[in-house]
Sequence to fold (269 residues):
Amino acid sequence: MEKYLTNLYYRLLERWTKWKENTLRWLRKYRYKLYFLGFLALTLYAKDLQFTIGMDGYTIADFQALRPIPRLMSRVLSGAEADEDPGFAPISWDEILNGEKAGTATPVADKVQLPAARTEKQKVQLAYVKRFAQVAQGEMKKFGIPASITLAQALLESDAGKSRLASRHNNHFGIKCQSRTCPKGHCVNYADDTPKDFFRQYETAWESFRAHSEFLQRDRYRSLHKLKPTDYKGWAKGLERAGYATGKGYGDKLIRLIEDLKLYQYDRV
Fold:
């Protein structure tokens, strides 16, 4: 019975994945038409709003303070291609409907001053940071993990996105596969601690970042969530003690990356 339920689960998971892929493919194909219809609906609704409740002190300017629907739809529909969008940050339907919240966000780049690259390696690292900073901050807001820690781990584990595991399989955190019965495409074999280590592979880089956040919710990392969100040193040392990586000096490497690239700024904005 257990085997039957397990097989049923993975069959349903595979069907869900195919349905999601087909749906996202259709949405991307017709996204411009959807943008136009959304913009048209917004325009008509804005005019109606001005006419019906203008006497209550509301104006079109108030309504236009909301983030434009086309840009919102673009970010939502690009979720399956998050790793290809340098400005990508996860966004929920609540944020779409909550115009006050969505319309007041200040770009991260306006608040953070990254250091000038001194070497070619650091230039690559900084480009990687800029690419995924908003994703890391989104994960910090949802899961309480300092953005600096997420970025430093991603940099270290993926070699700033250049490792085979990251570039080919969108695994930016070296997360291994723990399942004994994987569906096709779930994981890939790489030699790490042993020649038969299996690592998760993801459709997008964003899925890897989310998997990392969920991974750090495990009991072995629970004590870290009691630290202040700006205590990146405590997090770095705690990850090493909890055995996130087998290499020595893992915590010091994270701290050095955070301080060299001034990633701690992302924990405060």
Q: What stands out?
A: Residues 51-106 have pLDDT under 50 and may be disordered. The chain has two domains: 2-103, 108-267. Residues 2-29 form the longest helix (28 residues). Strands lie at 187-189, 198-200.
